[in-house]
User: What shape does this take?
Amino acid sequence: MFAQQFPFRSGAAVPSGKGVENDCYFFTAVQQHEGLPVYFGSQDFPEDGESNRSVQVLYSANGIERLEVSRLYSFSEPGDAVSLLDFGTVAETVSKKYGDVLGASYMVKRAELYKMPVKLSDGTYDVKTVWLFEVTESGIDSDTDKEYEYTQYMFVDATDGTEVFF
Assistant: This one.
């Protein structure tokens, strides 16, 4: 019943490597809707990595050591079919945003298509189809003259090419 309501794509199990009796495995799962993963991050923690998944399980020889289930969405009937823009048009939105910044270097490391629930003022959610772009910024800090690099995430609506803020 649970899997029918909340279909998931599983992540990898990672052993601890400290011997069979001490081995534990970390599993993650991502909720899916209409064949796409549902974005789980938030404005405060937008990272899209294994440490930021809606279902996390730590399993050892003793059984389940830790189980975390957070922010699962119950979707109504499937929505109407939407037309997605070609990837080049969507990528132009990213290029325009970061191309106008002087002094730093930006590189898109990854792009992935997601369903993203965006909370509206009335407490309901609008489910958008978005491209998540993982963008790395690098440069020289003007105060310290030291090199830096950090990752940013940008979301672009796959149907109209506008940046999505949440």
